[in-house]
Amino acid sequence: MRICIIGGGLGGLAAARALVAAGHDPHVLEARSRPGGVLTTTTTDGYIREHAASSFLGSPTRGARALCEELGVPVDAASPRAKRRWVFLDGKLRAFPRNPVEMVRTDLLTWRGKLDLLREPLRPARPSGDESVYAFAARRFGAEAARAIVAPFVTGIFAADAHEVSLEAGFPKLAELDASGGMVRGLVSQGGKALFRRFAGGGKKPKTKSGLFAPHGGLGSLVDALARELGPRIRLDSPVTQIAADPRGVLVDGERWDAVVLAVPAEDAVPLVAPLPELASRLGAFHRAPTQIVYLGYPEAAVPAAVDGFGFLVAHGEDLRVLGVVFESVVWPGRAPAGHVLLRCIFGGGRDPSTAALDDAALIEHARRDLGVVLGATGTPTHASVVRWTRGVAQYQVGHRDLVRLAVSSARTHRIALAGADYRGPGVNDLCADADVIVEEVKSWT
Ligand SMILES: Cc1cc2nc3c(=O)[nH]c(=O)nc-3n(C[C@H](O)[C@H](O)[C@H](O)COP(=O)(O)OP(=O)(O)OC[C@H]3O[C@@H](n4cnc5c(N)ncnc54)[C@H](O)[C@@H]3O)c2cc1C
After folding, report:
1. What are residue 414's phi and psi, to 5 degrees?
2. C-alpha 36 to ligand 1 mean position (Å)
3. Residues 157 and 237 in one domain
4. 428 CA distance to ligand 1 centroid (A)?
5. Does some domain include residue 383?
6. 232 and 194 assigned to the same domain
7. Which of 242, 264, 310 to mutate to test the pocket of ligand 1 (most atoms within 8 A of CB)?
8. Residue 204 pLDDT more than 90?
9. Residue 329 belongs to some domain of the structure
10. Which residues of 277-294 are buried (b: 16+ CB within 10 A; e: fewer)?
C-alpha cells in the first residue's frame, strides 16, 4: 500500500521503517525542515543538550535499544555514578530507596508511613475501572508513600500531577499487579511463573539489558540514522493542511493515498481532520502539556552536590518551581566541558503549565534560585539556555485507554492509523514498540 505518514517525529519515523519492512510504500510528510520532532541534540558552549528525551531503559525487547542495534547506532550505558536518585521533600534532599533495606532506613517516610507500606499485601485487589496513580498509591501503599515516593516518580515520567495521570494507561504493569491481588502477591506469582518458564525452557536465564541507555552523541543520532535509512521517503517542509475521506483511500491535501498514519500531536491533528468531525472530536480529548528545559552549566566546584546520582525530583508542595533536575553530565560523561557540570532543569508539564508564560530570563532565574536552594549552587553559570515546547509531554488522564479505543476505531473507518506519543505510551521505547501496532493496524486494510 502507498501510505502517507503525517509527522516525522519518532512516532512517524519508526512507523515508516516498520511499514517498509512489512512491504509497504510509506512516505513521511513533515512540516519542519528537519525530521525528529521534539527529539533533537545540539551542542552549545561545549555542552551537549537534548531538546526532549535524553535516555531510555534498555530492557524492552522491541524498544529503542533494539532499534539502535538494527540501525547500527552505538549506545552508551548511563554512568554507574548515576545510580542514586533523590527526592526533595520537606525542604531536604532525600535518597530514593533502591532495595528493601534502604526502604526500611529511608527518611522519605516516617515509621507510620513504613508500617502503612508493609500492609500492602493485606489490602484488597482493585475494583474494576481506571483511577489516578495517586489514588492507587494512596490506597495500596498509604498516603505518605503516595506523596513522597510515587507522586515524584510520576512527575519524572509525565511531568504531571499524579492525581491526574491514569493508572491503566500510564503504568499498565502496576495496574495488572494490582488487579491480580497486589504488588507483593503479583510479583511473587510472576516470579514463580518466570522461574517455571526458565526450567521449562532449559534452565537458561533470559538475557536482560537492564539499565538506562542513550545513543552515543544523543538521541539526534537515532533520528539521523532513521532519516538516512528512509532517505527520499521523508519530505521535509511539507505541512499537511487537510485530510478528507475518499471512497478508494484517503485524501491528503487533495492527493489520494491507500492509507494514512497520523503521527502529529493529536491537538495539531484536530484541524487537519475537520472534514471528519467525529474523528476531530475524538482527537480533541488528548493533550500534550507545554514543557521547558533550562540547561545550566557550572564549574564543578560551584555545585559539589551534583557529582553523585541521576538527579532529583521535587515532591508536591515544596517552595520550588522546578519539577526535577537531571545531573546530565554525571549520567552521560562528556556532555559538559572538562571540570564542569551540565544540569537539565525541567519546568511546566501538566503539574505547572503556567511556566509557559515565563520568558527565558525568568525561567533561568527560577532554575538558578532552585539549584541554590537544593544543591547550594553558587556563582554565575558558565552556560544558560532554554528549550521550550508548546506540545511537550503527553498527558494521560484517567480513562485514557477508553479515549484511545474510541479515537482509534473512529480513525480506522477512514483507513487512518494513529501514531505518536498521545496514545499507547509517550516514551521513546513506547514509540519504537508502537511501530508494530501500526503495521498490524494497516494489515487489516490490505
Ligand atoms: C521535554 C521532554 C523531555 C522528555 N524526556 C523523555 C525521556 O527522557 N525519555 C523518554 O523516553 N521520553 C521522553 N520524552 C518523550 C518523547 O521525547 C516524546 O514523547 C516523543 O519524542 C514524541 O514523538 P512524536 O513523534 O509522538 O511527536 P513529535 O516529536 O512532536 O513529532 C510530531 C511531528 O509532527 C510534525 N507535524 C505537526 N503538524 C504537522 C503537519 N500539519 N504536517 C506535517 N507535519 C506536522 C511536527 O513538526 C513534528 O515533527 C520527553 C519529551 C519532552 C517534551
Report:
1. -105, 10
2. 7
3. no
4. 9
5. no
6. no
7. 264
8. no
9. no
10. eebbebbebbbbbbbbbb
How does pLDDT run across 228-245, given as a tens digit for each residue?
Answer: 999 999 999 999 999 999
Q: Which three cell numbers stand for residue 328?
A: 546530565
Is the domain of 191 the same as that of 229?
no
Please count the other Cβ atoms lying within 10 Å of the Cβ belonging to residue 38: 20
What gap in Å lies between CA 36 and CA 424, rounded to an integer? 19
Residue 439 clears pLDDT 70, i.e. is over it: yes
Q: Are residues 141 and 195 in the same domain?
A: yes
| Separation of CA 426 and ligand 1 centre (Å) | 9
Answer yes or no: is 89 within a domain. no
Q: Which helix (H) or strand (E) holds 93?
A: strand 92-95
Residues 156 and 247 in one domain: no
The enclosing domain of 116 has a CATH number of 1.10.3110.10
- The mean pLDDT of 149-172, rounded to a whole number, is 94
Confidence of residue 338 (pLDDT cuts 50, 70, 90): very high
Domain containing residue 181: 99-200
Burial of 401 (C-beta count, 10 Å sphere; 0-12/13-18/19+): middle
Read off the pLDDT band of 193 (50, 70, 90): low
- Residue 203: its pLDDT value, please? 52
Which atom of ligand 1 lies closest to the CA of 268?
38
**Domain edge (last residue) among 169, 200, 231:** 200
258-283 pLDDT, tens digit per residue, is 999 999 999 999 999 999 999 999 99
Total count of domains within the chain: 2
pLDDT value at residue 202: 52
Residues with beta carbon inside 6 Å of ligand 1?
6-12, 29-32, 37-39, 52-56, 239-240, 263-265, 268, 272, 291, 293, 389, 391-394, 420-421, 426-428, 431
